[in-house]
Design goal:
The structure is a single chain. By secondary structure, the chain is of the alpha+beta class. The chain has a single domain, classed as Trypsin-like serine proteases (Thrombin, subunit H), CATH 2.40.10.10. Helix content is about 15%, strand content about 25%. The strands form four sheets. Strands 5-6-7-10-9-8 form a six-stranded antiparallel barrel. Strands 13-12-16-17 form a four-stranded antiparallel sheet, with no helix packed on it. A three-stranded antiparallel sheet has the order 14-15-18, with no helix packed on it.
Length: about 325
């Protein structure tokens, strides 16, 4: 059974007319992004970001009008050249591994604003803005611990069409609130995703990483901190997920969260994903899943997709050895 729609992604349930409408509204092109050609290792694809002026490009109006990134995962699944990709997947078995968090070195320069929302802003969680195929999109992301102190984790469909071009003008706004950027707007210099995503749009590997340029001479993790990560963890853990849902009934202007115990996807078990109780919508794509009950836990997945226009479950990819290799490649770049 494949009938998903909306939430962090929408998969395979759009009518032909709706798909045509989405294409007319700015479907992403499968042509390579301008600049250097993507590079690949056995399981990692990357793209150097050569466009400039990303932060200046994202005016308040463009941020407000950006399209929730869930439509990109829908298109990726439609374009997938091998719907039986599970038969060719690399083994996910690996040794459980944790990466410790990094504390911010600098004191916050912006005032924190109290909000009437599900969650107050979290310094290392933010909104992701990017362009693909001439259209502007919005997702969510999180600063994660890394050797370069400049790595953001998000969904694969928020960095690459899957299969197809990498994003341009990729910009991370930590602790976003009502159009404000209290810790600045950070532009990416390189994007990374598993080759299984960039070459086939395989939802099993819907995870991406972006390496950000310094801002005012400082690294991202030194300003906002960075979450620890865990790979090859046991299944069925308790999680708290965060994101900036922008599709109705939400408006994307403040941080939301969901909590619950993860269970396997009963509709597409070949995705190897897990779901938690959650009603976040498009725009929350790429938001972090933390093991435990707060944003101080290890990140272990991201918001990826849901089923149905009123879905109450959010699914995220299992972070096994393939995602771990992608992370290591980005974190050490």
């Amino acid at each position: 059974m494949r009938t998903p729609k909306t939430l962090a992604t929408s998969l395979l349930s759009l009518s032909a007319a709706a798909l045509l409408a989405l294409s007319a509204a700015g479907a992403a092109s499968a042509a390579p992004a301008p600049g250097k050609a993507p590079t690949e290792t056995s399981t990692v694809s990357s793209q150097a970001v050569v466009d400039t002026g990303g932060a200046e490009y994202w005016t308040a109006e463009r941020m407000r009008n950006a399209i929730p990134g869930d439509v990109l995962a829908e298109r990726a699944n439609q374009r997938s050249a091998n719907p039986k990709a599970a038969l060719n997947r690399a083994a996910e078995a690996g040794t459980p591994t944790t990466v410790e968090a990094q504390a911010p070195r600098l004191q916050a320069k912006g005032a924190r604003t109290k909000v009437k929302a599900s969650e107050s802003p979290v310094k290392h969680i933010g909104k992701v803005f990017f362009s693909l195929g001439g259209a502007n999109y919005v997702c969510s992301g999180n600063s994660v611990s890394s050797a370069n102190k400049s790595t953001v984790a998000t969904a694969g469909h928020c960095v690459n069409e899957g299969p197809g071009a990498f994003a341009t003008k990729f910009t991370f706004v930590p602790a976003y609130l009502d159009g404000s950027a209290p810790y600045g707007m950070w532009t990416a210099n390189a994007l990374y995703a598993p080759t299984q995503w960039t070459s086939g749009g395989d939802m099993t590997y819907d995870t991406g990483f972006a390496v950000m340029d310094p801002l005012n001479g400082e690294s991202l993790a030194d300003v906002v901190g960075a979450s620890g990560l865990e790979f090859n963890a046991e299944r069925g853990l308790d999680y708290k997920a965060f994101g900036y849902p922008a599709a109705p009934p939400f408006n994307g202007e403040s941080l939301k969260s969901c909590s619950g115990t993860a269970t396997d996807d009963p509709y597409n078990p070949d995705f190897n994903t897990q779901g938690i109780p959650c009603n976040m919508t498009g725009g929350s794509s790429g938001g972090p899943w933390f093991i435990g009950s707060s944003a101080t836990g290890y990140q272990n997945s991201i918001n990826s997709y849901g089923y149905g226009s009123n879905s109450t479950t959010m699914y995220g990819p299992y972070w096994g050895s393939v995602v771990q290799e992608t992370y290591i490649t980005a974190a050490e770049s």
